[in-house]
Design goal:
This protein has 166 residues and is α+β, with helices and mostly antiparallel strands. It has 4 helices and 6 strands, in the order ββααββββαα. The strands form 2 sheets. The chain has a 4-stranded antiparallel sheet with strand order 3-6-5-4, with helices on one face. A two-stranded antiparallel sheet has the order 1-2.
Length: 166
């Protein structure tokens, strides 16, 4: 289906328009090159450990419920939610759960766009927040009387930009 731009009288397919707006590696790398980390803080947390452990072995499940961003003058605020749930291998219910939301502030002359954020959320954001979440889970488990669990290191994604960004 073709759409006509105002006053142009030319039809443009949706696919062609999407390609014209596609995020390239050069555009993404230029954005990242100008981005500087200013601060990271724990904005929200929830820990549910209703009882002390009955057994020592937990099966961990990690989740990343979401992330969002807000453009500000000269800055981008990014909110990143992460979760940990521990279950026993022979039970269906969660024995302990930990959720955290981190606020990450970046200085940036360029505003974040939805296209940039799609790649940023996948590639760069976890590199900044994951170490903080690992420490938070470790400390929360210890403080609630559960055996500590060391989460694995985050491994960077070495794949090319996602298909939408090529």
């Amino acid at each position: 289906m073709a759409r006509t731009g105002p006053g142009k009288g030319e039809g443009t397919s949706s696919a062609a328009a999407a390609r014209a707006r596609a995020l390239t590696a050069e555009v993404y790398n230029a954005f990242i090159g100008e981005l500087d980390l200013v601060s990271i803080r724990l904005a929200r947390a929830r820990i549910e450990a209703p009882s002390t452990p009955e057994r020592g072995h937990l099966i961990p499940t990690l989740s990343e419920p979401g992330a969002r961003y807000e453009n500000q003058d000269g800055h981008v605020l990014v909110f990143h939610e992460l979760g940990f749930a521990g279950t026993y291998d022979d039970e269906t219910g969660t024995a302990v759960s930990i959720e955290a939301e981190f606020e990450v502030k970046y200085s940036s002359a360029q505003r974040m766009s939805d296209q940039l954020f799609t790649e940023f959320q996948r590639r760069n954001l976890p590199l900044n927040t994951w170490p903080y979440f690992r420490e938070f889970v470790h400390a929360a488990l210890a403080r609630t009387g559960w055996p500590v669990f060391v989460l694995p290191a985050y491994h960077s994604i070495s794949a090319p930009l996602s298909p939408a960004a090529e």
